[in-house]
């Protein structure tokens, strides 16, 4: 009798254990995120990423069956952050990707969007090179495979510098990573007179890092307020996101709260704080301008896949963005056949102070012919911006669409070339140990690009124009001394580091 009872209890315990295991298994399977799958990618979707994945044996991409509604996300974002400024983006400027969910766009245009193929040009029919159609945008999202980024305000430490990232944000709100390009730039507040003319020609996101040590913070903040509140239009408020940074040795005595700051309109009856600046805290303290810190701060904050790291006094040719992205979407040669990392350099020029900045390559060529425009730094450092096939570029007439004019390399007679280019977040950073005062601050990045065998795909119709006024070389003994010391650091410390990290390649040099 006792034995039978023991057998019965043993069998019951087995049944209970099995039931517990089954229940646990059901709970675990039920916790899997619905609609999320991990699937192997059989081949890279685009030449843009082909070189990034050369050493990967297994690549996985996460697909979500339910797409993110960008407009809804933007509303949630604005509600969850403290700086609540209503968007002034005109309805006509909203792209499909910023006003509808990705699946909604895909359903509308899926029959018209060809499958991305890195080895062939696409059959997308582009009717207007100066705009981006929903079909093109949907195709770009698939082709680029980029991830959207946020614009949350953050206080970060970067080496010896404190960074107030997204200190005052543009009113455009969240944007999809594929739908536009961010102009990333930098300045001291005394150069902020360039912001409005730059944005007038760019009309897209600008990420601007302002160096504001010590007492420079107050005029810097007031300059931002003036640009947002006191001009004849609101394009600065709409497009420009401002970041502030300063050394831990020169922290301002008081840092204003941007939420409180923006609640009170600026007194526009006063002159702009950035006009006719005679002296700054930075100059009084003999501080060097940390140009590469500024460049990297602005770049890191950009929320788009493509970025144009440039200087604030360089104004871009109009309609550059839609023409460039339409070119990317067409994916014609050499884009479709490229197997190397690549960037897209833009030709740079100066114009006489008495003349307006040209609005097209046709106008620019006419000014070059009558000598009212010249190649950038022709009388300062011609080799620094001597672009491959530069003369052929100037001789070539403007075309009705953007294409790659020539694929160059940074070697040979162009070994000291300092290109300004459209690139991505994957490109090498600028070395933050180098200052503007020490000169040749972009050379280390150029060396890395050369060693990594980047293709420099020079654009046929795009150009940058420096703020009017022809520059001439002026000897500066103080700056030459700083440049000598910086050059010694590059030669003795930085260059050996780069060779260890990235190796060498025949023809590559600083």
From TrEMBL:
Residues 87-101 have a biased composition (Low complexity). Residues 60-106 are annotated as: Disordered. Keywords: Membrane, Transmembrane, Transmembrane helix. Residues 62-86 have a biased composition (Polar residues). It comes from the Eukaryota. The chain crosses the membrane at residues 7-26. Pfam families: Glyco_transf_49. This is N-acetyllactosaminide beta-1,3-N-acetylglucosaminyltransferase. It comes from Pieris brassicae. The lineage of its organism: Eukaryota, Metazoa, Ecdysozoa, Arthropoda, Hexapoda.
